[in-house]
Design brief:
Blueprint: E1 2-8, H1 13-28, E2 35-41, H2 45-48, E3 54-57, E4 69-71, H3 73-77, H4 81-93
Protein name: PTS galactitol transporter subunit IIB
GO molecular function, one term: protein-N(PI)-phosphohistidine-sugar phosphotransferase activity
Domain PTS EIIB type-2: 2-94
């Protein structure tokens, strides 16, 4: 089971929107039931990432992360989304 941490300023608004898009991406690519998404505030991201496979954040990621990071902004704006989706899929596949 892959653990994906989705972080935004408060852990509620934009991370929820990104969570829906990332779930759809993963399900459409055959990963349904093989991952869990945990939402948190960016201030909690470093601790949440200690046992995670990926952090997707809609704000600047904290220093000292122990998991790969992908910007969540492309999932909100659409700009650069194909590249961000590829990054997510590559990390989850690895």
């Amino acid at each position: 089971m892959k653990k994906i941490v989705l972080a935004c300023g408060s852990g509620i608004a934009t991370s929820t929107a990104v969570a829906q898009k990332v779930s759809a991406l993963l399900n459409d690519n055959g990963y349904e039931g093989q991952y869990e998404i945990v939402q948190c505030a960016i201030s909690e991201a470093k601790d949440a990432c200690a046992d995670a496979d990926l952090l997707i954040a809609t704000t600047v990621a904290p220093n000292g992360l122990e998991c790969p990071y992908v910007s969540g902004v492309p999932f909100l704006t659409g700009v650069g989304r194909p590249a961000a989706e590829k990054e997510v899929l590559d990390i989850i596949a690895g």
